[in-house]
Specification:
single chain; alpha/beta; Rossmann fold; Helicase, Ruva Protein, domain 3; 2 domains; 9 helices
């Protein structure tokens, strides 16, 4: 965790495996990630899927899980490239687990691609674990280095399947219950109708409502939701 704080890349407290709504399609992927976070199983895992399906949640949950068993880890979101230099990869093979998010952001950036290929090789030589997530398979990213495409395609590859509308509703209510929030189906349906239907947006709205409800000591009703979220 100290490494994460050094880079200013802290984890979300609510990003855990226990509150990831796992469908049957995602079960094998989740099993591989949990094993990797414990220092077992696959040394390289590649995830891809559309925005909002939970890629970032899974990577952060992996780091949280590793920390709980005493392993060092780092969550590295490449969507923050404007504040990161590829030299950030130097020496990271000393950690047990590195989780790299939004890998598609470095596609076409030769300096980053070369640095990442070298980093991948160092992680393999050190027998450490690496999880990479992107919005597409390696072969469909605009990568300039064929060797990098080959390395990324060589591990355990999983698509993160999105949820149906019904499953999203269930996931929203389950997340609220996990936070100790009392939210009925009517309120959940209202949020579902009025917000973008990706889980990140819905969960962010839930976090806002939770804080406001605690501060005001009020129940979460539709009028309260309208007031707090400006709907």
């Amino acid at each position: 965790m100290s490494t994460q704080l050094t880079f200013g890349l802290s984890l979300r407290d609510d990003a855990t495996f226990s509150n990831f709504y796992c469908t049957e399609e995602n079960r094998l992927m989740l099993t591989h990630l949990k094993s990797s976070a414990m220092g077992r199983g696959e040394r390289f895992i590649y995830l891809w899927g559309n925005q909002g399906v939970g890629r970032s949640h899974l990577l952060q949950a992996s780091c949280q899980s590793a920390h709980q068993v005493g392993l060092t880890s780092l969550y590295l979101p490449l969507n923050e490239l404007q504040t990161l230099q590829c030299s950030i990869l130097d020496g990271l093979e000393a950690l047990h687990l590195i989780c790299v998010d939004d890998f598609q952001k470095i596609a076409g950036n030769r300096e980053w691609e070369v640095a990442f290929l070298d980093f991948y090789n160092r992680m393999q030589e050190a027998h450490k674990r690496l999880v990479v997530a992107a919005d597409a398979k390696p072969k469909t990213l605009a990568l300039g280095l064929p060797d990098l495409v080959s390395r990324l395609s060589s591990g355990s590859m999983h698509v993160v399947h999105g949820l149906s509308d019904e499953q999203k509703m269930e996931a929203l209510i389950l997340r609220a219950n996990a936070r100790g929030m009392r939210i009925n189906e009517e309120v959940a349906k209202f949020l579902f109708r009025r917000f973008p239907r990706d889980m990140r947006s819905l969960f962010d709205a839930l976090n806002t409502l939770d804080r406001a409800s605690l501060a005001a000591q009020r129940k979460i009703t539709i009028p309260f939701v309208k007031e707090i979220l400006g709907l």
